[in-house]
Amino acid sequence: MRPYRGLAVIFGFYALGEIVSSGLHLPVPGSVLGMLFLLFALLSGAVKLEWVENEAEFLVKNMSVLFIPPGVGIILYLGLIRAQLVPVSVALVLSFVITLFVTAKTVEVLRR
Amino acid sequence: MNPYGITLTLVVFYVFSELHRRKKAVYTNPVLLSIVAISLLLKLGGFSYGSYMESAVFLKFLLGPAVVSLAIPVYKNRGLIARYSREIAAGIIVGGTTAMLTAYWIAKLLGASGTVLRSIAPKSVTTAIAIGISTKIGGIPALTAVLVITTGLLGNAFAPELLNLFRVRDRIARGLATGVSSHGLGTARIIIEDELAGAVSGLGMALNGVFTALVLPYLIEVL
Fold this sequence. Notes:
B: mainly alpha; globular
């Protein structure tokens, strides 16, 4: 087990994504660019799956806990949410149902 | 730097995860319960978000490397992507665009403010990517995080039942619709009922995250 190799590759691609995102003033998050770069590196064979597999799967499987600190930030915006509770909740529910329906029907039509 | 924020987060999440392991239900979702419990604790105890984040920011920072790591499940499922490439591509482009536009327009129609619109537009993609997009387009990342988790809970609670109601039987269609509309939380539910649909759902989540991250920053400028 050499976790520092996997972590070095993952953090390296994250840093690369951030450099490209801010360097080229792209609106796309650096993490998403880093993910795409890592995917291409895997597909081209520049990075081997076993270098990063364990560390990447640890991060992905334990991602849930990472959402809590940004989520708690909601206490700074309680007033804003209370004021716009109706538009926000109606938009969330309707958009979810419509998206589920439209996506499923799009795939179904193509599968026939 | 005080260590209480990260400690509190880990302890509270551990307790609610154990509860969820024993009682699997929407209302025992450990992420949502942890956010509510910690928020209440900070409010009632008179602690500031800043003091909580002194150490909790370390967990938030790891979202970046975690998103980079999503390349691995996509790479491992490359065979599945190749086989259903046409259906998956169409479903993500149509479904992903529908998710952004319906959320934005419905909230706008009902009078939501500009900042809220920018926070709600990326709500269908996985939290880590949504937070990144929200930061980039001028939304409130914390608000986006809560909206994303709420959307995921809808998928976790209702996606399979709604798909039955819509008479969708095709497993690829069921999986992709779940992943595109309600990301990881939707995936977590459908994968229990159907493994193939679950794999497609996870893939739909990852690809829709990339699609939305590439499109929304430009789309939001013309809305």
